[in-house]
Structures are given as C-alpha cells and as structure tokens.
Amino acid sequence: MILIAFFVLLFILFALGFLYFWGINPGDITVYLTSETSYTLPGAIMLMAVLLAGLLLGNLVHMMSAFILSFKGWKKGRDLRKGEEISTVYRSGVGRLLSGDLKKARTLLKKALDRDPRRIDSHLALASVALQEGNIQEGIDLLQKARKLDPKGVEVLFKLATTYEEQEQYPEAMAIYKELLAGDADNRKAMRALRDIMIKLSHWDDALALQKRIIKATAAGPKVDQEKQTLLQLRYEVARQALEQNELDQAIDACRDIIKQDAGSTPARVTLGDAYRQADRFADAAKVYQEGYRALKKSVFLARLEDLYINAEDPAALLAFYRAQMEQDPQDLLLKLYLGRLCLRLEMVDEAMQHLTDLEATGIDFSKLHLLLAEGQRRRNRTDEAIAEYQKALKIDSHLLLGFVCDVCGARFNQWHSRCPQCNSWDSLILPERKQIQEARMIDYPKMIPHGAREAV
Asked: Which of 360, 377, 396 is the last residue of a domain?
C-alpha cells in the first residue's frame, strides 16, 4: 500500500514538473534525424523524452551489469563446486597412493585429471603412480606435460630431474638442474644434486667449481663444515686426476695445500708420496710416507714404504725405520705386524716369529696373522704347528663346517638360522659357495673301468 502511494506521489510530481516546464517553455523544438527527416515537438515534451530515454538507457545498463555479475557469480560458484569435487577425488587418489593401492589411486587420479587437465598436482601424483608401477616413460611423459603447464615450477622440475637421475639418465637430469639454477642461481638443493651427479660421472673439475659456489651460498648453517670437507675431497680428486695425467707439479702443489688445511687427510698424503715417487724423488716420497704413518698410524703408509724400499733393493733402510719406530712406541701393534711380515720376507724367521707371537699373545685373532705364523712355522720345519696355524687361518675345525652366509647382508655364521641375526632377513642363509657350485657343470670324463673288470675286458 505504501509502495502504491509512493508511485502515485511520484507520478503527481512528474506531472506537475511536466506542466511547469510546458508552461515556461511554450515554443516547439525541431529535431532533424536526417536532412529530410525531422520531428517538431513542444520543448517540455522533448525534455521529458530525453529524460525518459536517459533513465531507460541507464536502467538497461544497470540490468545488463546485474545480469553479468549474476552470471559471473553463478559461473564462479559452479567452478568452485567443480574444483572442490576434483580436489576431493584428488585427495582420495593421493590417499590410495600413500596406502599402496596403486590401481585405485590410478583410477581416481585419472578421473581428477580428466575433469581438469590443467591441474599440476594431478599430473605429479599420477606420475608417482606410474613410476611406482614401473611405467617409467609414462611417468616422465606426465611430468613433461606438467612442465609445459608450469615451465618454471620448482616442484615439477625437481621431480623430473630426480626421476631422470634414478633412471641414470644423467645428461637429462643435469640439464634440468641447470635450468633450475638459471632461474635461481643460489638454489643449494639443485647445486648439490648437480654436484653429486658430476661426482658420479667423475667430472671433478666441474664438481669442484660448483662446490665453490655451494660454499659461497652456504655462508652459515650446520652444513658449512661438511661442505668445506667436500671441497677438500674434490680438490684431492682433481689432484689425483692430475697425477694420473702425469701433471706432477700440479698434483704435488694441490696435495701439499690440502695437507696444510687438513693434516688428517690420508688420501692427500698417500697421493703426495706417490707423486714424489713418480717424479723420481725417492727421499721425498719416503719422508711423506714416514711422516704420514707417524701422524695417522695408517697401514697404507707402511705398505707404500715397503713397496718403495723393496723395489729400491734397500730393505735395510726400511728395517731400520721399523725398529726405530718400535723403540719410540713399543705398543704399536700395527707396526709390529708389518715388522714381523718384513722379517719373514727377509728370511729373518726367528725375529719374525717373536713379533708375530707377541701379537697373538695380546688376543688378536685374524686369518692373516695365522697365515704369517703358519709360514714361519713351515720355514722352521715345524709341520704340525704350521698345520695348526693354517687350520686357524682357514677356520677349519674337527667337524669341517662349511658355514653359512646371508645372501642379503653378507654376514657369516657357523650355524644356520631361519632369520639372519645381522639384518633380520628371513630364509637368507646359504652356503657361501652355493652360487659358484650351482653355476658349475661336471666335466664329462671317460668313465673309469673298475679294477675287477679290467681282466675280463
């Protein structure tokens, strides 16, 4: 009722306004639509017509805008509902993937991807399904499609690179990691992954250059010390490669610098000695090996010294070094082992046996020691003692046990176990030589004629 009254009042006001304008504007107005077509109307009517036309046009524009907004709202709501439905299917597929139900995961994720082919996450999840199923090429194709949808997507690029790397397609993986670094030069994850591939491929110079960038990007944090150690290791590999290529000065300088920074680097000390030896600097090589043993007590230095002096036909100098070291550290059992072995090689059997039996008396028990003791007893013509030591070395007992080895972890046992005590694998213990025996074939020798049958023949 109020609304009707409002419209009546509005009409009355409009009518009064119309009469008022008509009264003060008695003249006519001629409007030409073309040169020959015109309309003549009172000024008040013309004014009201223009006003009404403007109101009508504005109302039409308003109605059109409202319709467009309404349509967009409807479309947005529909897209939201569709997106939520797809997300629900996607989440269900991912849940199946995580639970190991690959068949159901594939069905759900394929459905989600069919409904929205531009979803990156659906491509990634379906690629994971394909890769776990062993469909490598399908997985790579899905990742490549995701890459086209998001060429700079870090997640997509990393997934594609790691997939190539797992398939040992190293050039393709390296290209992806380089693409990642082109977009983000300080991406440490990409740099480390690329460095690791270079290490696998023995591209030592490239790996070293990249490691320097990694250290520069890793100015602080828990991995700084580890990265610096990796840098020294890569510098060592470059030095070793230089030695292999007979670039002796470069190898020597690099190894000496590495030792200054890390005195505990056994590889650098050994390679430095090898470089001196290759350069015919016998005294320098011997000094490096001797200092290396004094500092680190590693057997490799004794092995290198023995090879150096024996080849130089100067075992007396080596023997003198061993004895001098034993005087300084009588408890050096590793040196005592090598000294006993050297004496045995030089037919100094009594002194060799003294050092070797001293070792045995400490409770040390390993096959190589028993072999050395057996050889010493043999050279003393003590057959029974030599046989006993050989049996200990070969771990032969009165039952002549053959023993068992785990086919998974390689642990050895005298007794069979249903489950490996070392790695907990079931039914994995086998005869150590089983594969060799299975692969061998009997030789078809001519059959022997029994003794009793020979005379009949």
From this structure: 396
**C-alpha to C-alpha distance for 327 and 323, rounded to whole angstroms:** 6
Among 329, 341, 268, which Cα is nearest to 301's? 268
State the pLDDT at residue 453: 56
pLDDT tens digits, 54-97: 667 877 887 888 778 877 777 777 667 777 888 888 899 989 99
Number of CB atoms found within 10 A of residue 310's CB: 14
Tens of pLDDT, residue by residue over 195-250, are 999 999 999 999 999 999 999 888 777 788 899 999 999 999 999 999 999 999 99
> How many residues are recorded in the chain?
457
Dihedral, 181, 186, 187, 193 alpha carbons, nearest 10:
70
Classify residue 427: in a domain, yes or no. Answer: yes
What is the tens place of the pLDDT at every residue in 168-177?
A: 999 999 999 9
Q: And the tokens for 293?
A: 């043993």
| Amino acid at residue number 52 | L
* Dihedral sign (CA 91, 97, 103, 106): positive
CA dihedral 218, 221, 223, 225 (to 10 degrees): 90
Query: Domain residues for 369?
Result: 314-396
| Nearby residues of 186 by Cβ (< 8 Å), 6 or more positions away | 217
SS3 48: helix
Would you say residue 271 lies in a domain? Answer: no
Structure tokens at 240: 């070793």
In Å, how far are 3, 7, 73, 76, 441 from 62, measured between CA atoms? 22, 21, 16, 21, 95
Tell me whether residue 377 is in a domain.
yes
- Quick one: tokens of 421? 């005590």
- Rounded Cα distance between 7 and 19, Å, is 18
> How many domains does the chain fold into?
2
For residue 86, is it within any domain?
no
Please tell me whether residues 370 and 417 are part of one structural domain: no
Cβ–Cβ < 8 Å for 381, 392: no
Which string of b and e fits 227-263 if b means at least 16 CB within 10 Å?
A: beebbbbbbbbbbbbbbeeeebebbbebbeebbeebe
Q: What is the mean pLDDT of residues 283-287?
A: 96
